[in-house]
Amino acid sequence: MKALVLAGGFGTRLRPLSCTRPKMLFPLANQAMLDWTMKNLSEGGVDTVVLAVNYMAEALVRYFGPTKFDLGIIYSREGRPLGTGGPIKKAQEHLVDGEPFLILNGDIISDIDYRRLVEFHKSNGGIATIALVRVPDPTRYGAVELDGDGRVARFVEKPEFGTAPSNLINAGIYVFDKEVLDYIPDGRKVSTEKEVFPILANQGKLYGYEVHGLWLDVGVPEAYLEANRHILERLTREDMGEDRVVHETAKILEPTYLGASVNVGAHSVIGPNASISDHVHVGEGCRIENSIIFPGASIGDYSSVRNAIIGENASIEKWVKVESGSLIGDYATITDGVTITEGVTICPSKTVSESILQPRQVM
Ligand code: GTP
Question: Taking the complete model, does pTM exceed 0.90, yes or no?
Answer without folding.
Answer: yes
